[in-house]
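User: My collaborator sent over this chain with a note saying "see what the structure looks like." That's all I know about it. Can you take a look?
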Amino acid sequence: MSRLDSMMRRLSAQRDGLEWAAEQTRNMNGDALDMGLGNGRTYDHLREILDRRIWVIDRVLQCHPSCVPPSQDFLEGEAEEMLQKLAAMGAKIVLAHYDFGFGVKEKDVEEAARLSPAIARVMVPGGVIVSGQPLVGFQAVEGPAGIAKDRYYFYRT
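Assistant: Without extra context I'll predict from the sequence alone. Here is the result:
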């Protein structure tokens, strides 16, 4: 598979997974969390499909100007510290998207495992996590049909 085909498959899985998660959590009370703003494409899509507050965490704000989250919803800094801050504020997250990464699979998997307990502290019971990396300590669930195994991961809290 070409790198272009692989990227298209990943982006389709991400979009389909987020829309599936939005439907799964539609009747739940709480906020959403986008971990890893990057260029802002995912955040922009979440704004389109959700009617709830969306918290955003990233090391630095470098997104497209049309995708800048409101300053009160953007937590800039290292992930673990920002998740602790979110927990201390009493945030209740029903839908989370995990997209942190260095671009080195082994490091990305290790970081996801390390951050999993901090993510768990902000999630409400029954919440949904859509993740580009495997997380630990959550109940793996089958996401939407048509997404290749290990392309994207889906969890209930």
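A starting point for your reply to your collaborator: The chain has a mean pLDDT of 95.
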